[in-house]
Amino acid sequence: MALRTRIAVTFILLLAAVLAAALGAVSATNHSNAEREVQRQLNVGTSVFSRLLESNRRQLTQAAQAVAADYGFREAVSTRDTDTLVSVLENSGKRIGAAMVVLTTLDGEVIAASGLHVTDGAPFSLSPEQKGSLAGDGSTSLMVDNGRIYQLVTVPVRSPLPVAWIAMGFELDDKAAHELADITGLAVTLAVNSGGHWTDVVSTVPAGAARQSDVVARRIEMSKWGNAEVVAILSISLADARAPFERLTKVLFLIAAVSLIASAAAAFWLARNITRPLQDLTQAVDQMRAGTYDVALSVQRGDELGVLAEGLQLMQTAVHSRDQSIRRLAYEDSLTGLMNRTAFGAALSQALAGPRGAPIAVAVINLDRFRRINEHLGYSVGDAVLTKMAARLAAVPSVEGAVARLAADQFAAFARLRDAAGLQAWGTSLVMALAEPVFVEAQPIDITATLGLTLAADAAATADELMRCADLALEHARREKRALAIYEEALKPAARDQLSLLGELRHAVEHDELRLYFQPKIELKTGRVAGAEVLLRWQHPTRGLLGPADFIPFAEQTGFIRRLTRWTLDHAIAQGAEWQRAGKPLGLAVNISVEDVGDVRLDSRVAGMLTRHQLPPPLLTLELTESGFIEDPTRAVRVLDAVAALGVSLSIDDFGTGYSSLSHLARMPVHEVKIDRSFVQGLESDPEFASVVRSAIDMGHGLGLKVVAEGIETEESAARLRDFGCDVAQGYLYAKPMPLAAFETWLEGRERVPVIAVPVDFPAEDLTDTVSLGVY
Amino acid sequence: MTKLHRHPRPAAALLAVLCASAAFAGTVTVNATTRAGTAAEDTVIVFDPLDAAPPASRNEAIIDQVNKKFVPRVSVVRTGTTITFPNSDRIRHQVYSFSRTKTFDLKLYAGSPKTPVIFDQPGLVVLGCNIHDSMVAFVGVVDSPYFAKTTDSGAVSLNLPPGRYRLRAWNPNAVAAIPAREVTVAAAPLSIPVSLDLDPASAAPAAWPE
Fold first, then answer.
1. Angle at A255 between CA A251 and CA A260, to 5 degrees
2. Least buried of A212, A258, A333, A381, by fewest C-beta within 10 Å?
3. Burial zone of A660 (CB within 10 Å; 0-12 exposed, 13-18 middle, 19+ buried)
4. What pLDDT is stored for residue A657 in this prediction?
5. Which residues of B touch A78 (CB under 8 A)?
6. Cβ separation B201–A161 shorter than 8 A
């Protein structure tokens, strides 16, 4: 639900609930008030009615007494003259407004009567109740005569003792009833019971109205004597009593309805007043999110919404400036102001997506020996050089293109050429632009650049591919020591092969595609076979026999080399053990890599293999390059110490090429060094090398190590090495690396250097026997 | 009550007359009591001689009006007696009677009325004052010279010549008529008890025994 609706609905519901509660309370109160009022009115009216009747009786009694006490009346009564009496009675009745006057004996028998109808036909006499007591002042009662109700007042006539009764009847007619009704405020109905049937004789309301359901009535027995069973019904209409309250309720309902409508309108207006600016702000925020930062926030208000709008405006500005600086950082090289790699890639992609036809050329440019400028002249000069170079590159005209700084001393550029033939010319113009000497603080700095070029000939070429191609061309140019090289297919490595190589290597290990090759080592002094170096070959199912250069570097990069080393060690040791069992022991040298030296469990692995195949440790030599222990000498020493402790020999490969310090070498548990083949090759062409080789050999001997030379191809080299005191030689002069069968054939009939058994501490008990085999 | 002494009591006057004329007469004492045994004052006692006609005589009586009351309230007189109604009050009274025995009306007056009223027929006369309803007096008119009214002790004594008499008794408060009876008087004193049923609140007196 929208905020506006929610606010409005909440307000309205709340108000409606309050109004409903108030109206309900008022209505209920009104209802009960009306009921109470009716009851109260009825109580009061009833009380007043009774008092009125009593007062009326007293008045009538007094009036009757006055008549009875009149001397003339008494005189007339004493005459007992009927005609006179009747006329006297009529006269007296008229005097006090009595409709009926009856004179009776003390026993109640009628002497004379006026206005009495009952006597027609039946004798009439006053009942004891009607007479009352002689001693008293008379009595009052109700009497029904001829369908009319009379208030009958009976008083004695004294002359001076009571001699007769005079009864005077005052009719309770409509007039009287209306008077009573006026005073009591109630509807008055007088009903008479005649033979079990009630008849309303007089009533101030229409017939039957006093007995309706919405009328509250009180029944008062006025007389139960004889034929005059009379009741008064005092009634009040509930509807009449409720009328004022209902009017009030109606007015309240009207007020409630009006206020509800007014509040609803106000709530909607207020809600809209709040939500419309909010909608505007939301719209503005949406635009900002889409990247538009010049949205006008037009909420001009002094309230919180105005403050919010102002805040958003400020935020927009801040976000915009931050966005710009982030973009700069993300896509711009801060030093030169050129694009960075990311921006360049994007620009190139965009250009590639553009119209086809004119090809796009990409160049990767490397400043030669730039590190030296930084090192020798300082970074500020380096930065100055970079800035000037960047400016020069940017100044090279191109139809559509860009220049970027990819890394410290590496730039890139692309341009749309007219045709493919223009590539060389564009590349040359770039080289020429950079070739001029750079002056920094009036000091000329000679700097050259190497370029790798490529052309987006293929329609599907991506920016990434082009960059990689240009990189490969650059590498090629560097290798070829040329200023510029253009990419060609031949430069592309077998990327696919690389990717699948790991899986194939795994397959090779698991399916015995690897082969051990053996190259003999010859003792120079005697020409006897001193041992053999074990080399690895891969009998690839499709590519044929592959040399170590084809897969070892890759295995080293991926860490798979450990697996290969284990495989080689295991098989070499097995082979060595076989020869040992055959009584023809031969020392074997296995290459291990830097990775293997990092393996702290190397010794236990080697020990396990020796134990399993039962090969005396001295028959195994592990060869490793100097780099193997340079990276982490401490760990290397620990690992190699452990291996050496097994009784296995260690040999340093490529001795003399690396940076191995003598101190390291001295600390290592090394038994021999192998002089790099470049020394041996140099030995033949350069006489100066002879002294270097000699020094190396002497150094090895000085450290108490056996010295081995490899790559011997001529007898002359062999002779000179022999002269220099080199112990063992290895090379094509003697034999190429051979598969097992060829090697065994080659070995036949050759004299071997006897293997001297060296007692060693084997970690495993059961090997003691093997070690004690003694002489080889 | 001071004026009471100026007028001789009728009973005393009668006794004086009787004693003077018949020295041989016997004394009869009537004791009127109520059922409850209390004295029945103001009971009228009449002896009607059955054997000989009573001697004629002219008599006079007075019924005063004192403090809005007739004094005495009950009187017994011989037929033909002239009764004077002096007014001792300072207010006026109108004495009247609607009784058939004697109907008269003395218009409002103060002091002594102009004319006395002669009660010439036997029977009961009820007197009233037209302007004071509470004033009521009873006058019994009898032919016999032998009558009396009981005192506050309820008793009264008469000297009667020997012979037979009809004894009548009446009291204004009696609830019912007292039956008459025959009494023989000799020289010896005679005591006659009369029992009555009285109701002081009774508004209408029992019928006058004729």
1. 150
2. A258
3. buried
4. 65
5. 98, 103
6. no
Question: Does the beta-carbon distance from B205 to A160 stay under 8 Å?
Answer: no
Residues found in chain B: 210
- Alpha-helical segments (H) within A290-420: 304-331, 341-353, 370-377, 379-395
Q: What is the pLDDT of residues A68-114, one digit of tens each?
A: 888 888 888 887 777 888 888 888 888 888 888 888 888 888 888 88
CA A616 and chain centroid, separation: 66
d(CA B156, CA B174): 18
Tell me the C-alpha to C-alpha distance, in Å, between residue B73 and each of B1, B14, B84, B195: 13, 18, 14, 21
Cβ pair A420, A455 in contact under 8 A: yes
Distance, in Å, from the CA atom of A625 to the CA atom of A664, rounded to the nearest integer, reads 13
Burial category of A228 from C-beta neighbours within 10 Å (exposed 0-12, middle 13-18, buried 19 and up): buried
| Burial class, A251, CB count within 10 angstroms (exposed 0-12 / middle 13-18 / buried 19+) | exposed
* Residue that wins the pLDDT comparison between A239 and A765: A239
For B147-197, what is each residue's pLDDT tens digit? 999 999 989 998 888 889 999 999 998 888 888 899 988 888 889 999 888
Angle at B179 between CA B178 and CA B183, to 5 degrees: 115
Contact B201 A135 (CB under 8 A): yes
Report the greatest alpha carbon distance in chain A.
204
pLDDT at A764: 40
- Whether pLDDT at A717 is above 70: yes
Which pair of structure tokens corresponds to residue B174? 């009696």
Alpha-carbon gap, residue A733 to A712, rounded angstroms: 6
pLDDT in tens, A579-589: 999 888 899 99
Q: Round to whole Å and give the CA distance between A114 and A166.
A: 11
Judged by DSSP in three states, B118 sits in: strand
Give Rg (Cα) of chain A: 69
Q: Which chain A residues have any C-beta within 8 angstroms of a chain B C-beta?
A: 69, 71, 74-75, 78, 106, 134-135, 156, 158-163
| CA distance linking residue B135 with residue B73, whole number of Å | 9
What distance lies between CA A20 and its chain's CA centroid?
Answer: 42
pLDDT digits (tens, 9 = 90+) for A149-208: 888 888 888 888 888 888 888 888 888 889 888 888 888 888 888 777 888 888 888 877
Reading across the β-sheet that carries B93-97, which strands appear in turn? Answer: B74-78, B132-142, B123-129, B93-97, B104-109
Summarize the confidence of residues B90-109 as an average pLDDT. Answer: 89
CB-based contact A377:A312 (threshold 8 Å)? no
DSSP A695-713: HHHHHHHHTT-EEEEE---
**Dihedral over Cα of B29, B34, B39, B42: its sign:** negative
Look up residue A24 and give its amino acid: G
The pTM (predicted TM-score) of the whole model is 0.45
Q: Calculate how close chain B gets to A162, using CA atoms only, in Å.
A: 7
